Amino acid sequence: MMTHFRIGAAMALALVATAGYAQTDPNAVAQIPTTAFKPVATATSPDKSLVVTIAFDNDGRPTYAVARKGKAILNPGKLGVMFTDAPKIERNLELIGKSTDSSDSSWTQPFGEWKTIRDRHNELTLRFREKAGLKREMDVVFRIFDDGIGFRYNFPDQPNLHQANISDELTEFAFAQNGTAWWKPAYQWNREEYLYNKTSLDAVSTAQTVMTVKLADGTHAALHEAALVDYAAMNLARSEGNTLKASLTPGAGAPKVTRMAPFASPWRTVILSDDAPGLYMSHLELNLNEPNKLGDVSWIKPAKFVGVWWNMIKGDWSWATGPIHGATTANVKKYIDFAAANRIPGVLVEGWNVGWDGDWFGNGNAMQFDQPTPDFDAAELYRYARAKGVHLVGHNETGGSASHYDSQLDRAFSYARDHGIPVVKTGYVTDAGQIERVDADGTKKREWHEGQWMVNHYLRVVQTAAKYKVGIDSHEPVKDTGLRRTYPNWLAREGGRGMEYNSWPGKNPPNHEANMFFTQWLGGPMDFTPGVLSLEGQGGSAILSTEAKQLALYVVIYSPVQMAADTPENYAKHMNAFQFIRDVPVDWSETRVLNGEVGEYVTVARKDRAGDDWYLGSITNEEPRTLNVALDFLDAGRSYTAEVYRDGAGADYRTSARHSIAIEKRVVKKGDTLSLALAPGGGQAIRFAATGQARRR
Ligand code: NOJ
Ligand code: CA
């Protein structure tokens, strides 16, 4: 053990000095029944609004509690880990060391929602040791920000804990109040692709993260994790009342996680805010990830794309070769022409490679990621696209045969590099728990998408792609925990119900995006593939959205790879509205969430990273509403032409008037107020074109 880490008996149990809220209102600590809990340390956020109190219960179990602005948010929750081959570390612990640190720094996102990210936090590291028996040691590291906390376990290497075979984690989140929770179920066959449930907190069963809670007193909390590396993803199982317990995703073997010490767990995170918009404005997730490990990433170019895709999702074209094959040279050329004509840099092509014929679902071992089908002339399309200033977006669907993909990674990404393909969309379509892993000795195993082995697989793909200067857009991925900071070529993920569900029966309801914004999208960018202006899925079935809402999604959703998902033929019928999709950028210097309630509505303003224009997107659920927004975000001293795309007369997602859209211009400046009238299932998109700036797109 490091000597500087050991603390003297006299100060061992002294509380870290607290000020501000904690001092003026001692409720925070008073919440902890002192008969049962013995506080041993506290730490506060830099602004003193958050207080974390670590206390032992009567059994020597360390707990942590969180108070905010003098009110209890989390009651004492347990800490600890269980093993498959050794007793758990939880009871009969003593505190043998403590250290503190703090930081206030800023860093730059190479691309993203914000250019500059501030990281201001206090850190408290506690070392616990078992008083008897194996005398194992475990650190718990807390980082306390003004808008939430992260904490992780750190296991030093030690004689009685060299290889850790973890069966589960004992971490609890013991909410001090009941509230409303937005969550989707864990461990179900359709992976991450479920609608969000809205229930009372004390009615949650087993949930994936991000899970968002509005507590009885109005405080909003989002539970998630950061920096999920070489570990199993965390879900949340409600044990009793308002208490949730970490539940790690299984793997094919008995331990859910196997690691050699020393190692650290991912950060367990709780973002806290007075309101829903504050959750999105937090940078805690990114700040808890390590800085960029790829060095120069100027080769990564965020970009919009169109694709040989929606016709397949609708069933009009096929991935397989044959009479309705989508990825033919002629079809792809038409998409390249369309992209070039509209200054959209990318064209996704699915079904271009050998392996899709027959029943591809469950037969991922047939996929060849460097072999085009005979009717797809790769060399000619590379030449044609390049001549028109367009690149292809690659597609590697593994069908869940992850080891088969592993064996081809270098071939797949050197093929991409050699064909001018800067980003590859990957896919892992198979039911939960059915990923095929084949070990070196030929043994076949079945893995979960979010188990430790797959967590490592996804990152291996991203790291290998980086060697070839290729970006990755993972579908059926592991959830996003902010690793795009460390590996910026991990551009986006799906991991939820995207636009494809609007083609099929059981469409996304109008509240879906307002749910996603305040849950999954707190974790990072999603390749949702918005922009189906035809508002029609399979067989002409109606999408439950207005046309203006489709445009608004380009500002509401952050993704450095953003698709214009509809077909060129359909866009040709909606060219006035399509102008907004042509104009909107994918890279921002500033983001503000102007208003919002989980599952109801949200309004987002973002500033173009490459210019002076601002953009606004506002969406609602099935309720019509009028939102007044102050244009305080605009830059002072200049005027803007607001190009407004709003729900038109009678617009309503339930009728053919879903297409009613009004497009108009007005001159505005900072300090003006706009009234946004949103139709049922509607939205509004605005480009604030800075006067005097040439239209770039
Ligand atoms: C599911 C993906 O989400 C979708 O975008 C893709 O087209 C299909 N899998 C086929 O790979
Ligand atoms: Ca999917």
UniProtKB/TrEMBL annotation:
GO terms for molecular function: carbohydrate binding; hydrolase activity. The keyword Electron transport does not apply. Keywords: Hydrolase, Signal. Residues 1-22 form the signal peptide. It comes from the Bacteria. Residues 309-495 form the Glycosyl-hydrolase 97 catalytic domain. Residues 587-688 form the Glycosyl-hydrolase 97 C-terminal oligomerisation domain. Residues 44-291 form the Glycosyl-hydrolase 97 N-terminal domain. The keyword Signal applies. This is Glycoside hydrolase family 97 protein. It comes from Sphingomonas liriopis.
